[in-house]
Amino acid sequence: MDVKNLRNVEVRRIIPDDAPKFVDAYIFHAETETGRVLTQKELDVLNADYDTIQEYVQEQRIDCMASAIRFMSDPREVAKHKRDKEESARQPFVWYKRW
Question: Among 3, 28, 41, 88, who pairs with 12 as Cys (CB 3.0-4.6 Å)?
Answer without folding.
Answer: 28
